Amino acid sequence: MEIEKREVGKYSVLIIREKVDLYNLSDFKKELLPLAEEKDHVAVELKENRYDLCSSVIGALISGKKRVPDNGSFILINSSETVTALLAMSGLGRFFTTVEDISELP
Questions:
Q1: pLDDT computed for residue 18 by the predictor
Q2: pLDDT of residue 51
Q3: Count of alpha carbons within 13 angstroms of residue 10, beta-carbon side
Q4: N or C: which end of the chain has fewer CB within 10 A?
C-alpha cells in the first residue's frame, strides 16, 4: 500500500494513494495507529475511497481517533459525498470531523 506522510501546519497527514479495504487494512492500521498515539493532530486523506468504506476500515478510523489525545484532533480529508452520507447514516458523522481539501485543515 502506498501511503505518503506529510506535515501540514500542526497536522500529521496520511495520504492514502489507493483504496483501503479488507485486503490492505493491516498496512493501513500499521501506519495510522502508531501515528495517532504519537501525534496530537492527525488527518487522513481518503480520496481513493470515493464510494465506500467497509466496516473494518471504519473500525480502524475509530481506533485511530480514540488514540488521539482529548486535546488533539482527528480529521478525515476529501471524503466523498457517498462516504460522508454513510458516516452520517451510521451516526458517525458527529464523531468524525471532515474537510474537503487538505488546505482546509484548521
A1: 86
A2: 67
A3: 9
A4: C
Stretch (H or E) spanning 75: strand 73-77
Cell of 30: 500499521
Q: Please say whether the dihedral angle defined by the alpha carbons of residues 48, 51, 56 and 60, taken in this order, is positive or negative.
A: positive
CB contact set of 9 (below 8 Å; sequence gap of 6+): 105
- CA atoms lying within 13 Å on the CB side of residue 106: 9
Burial letters 28-60, b for 16+ CB under 10 A, else e: bbebbeebbeebebbbbbbbbbeeebeeebbeb
What is the C-alpha separation between 10 and 73, in angstroms, rounded?
10
Residues in the chain with pLDDT values less than 70: 51, 79
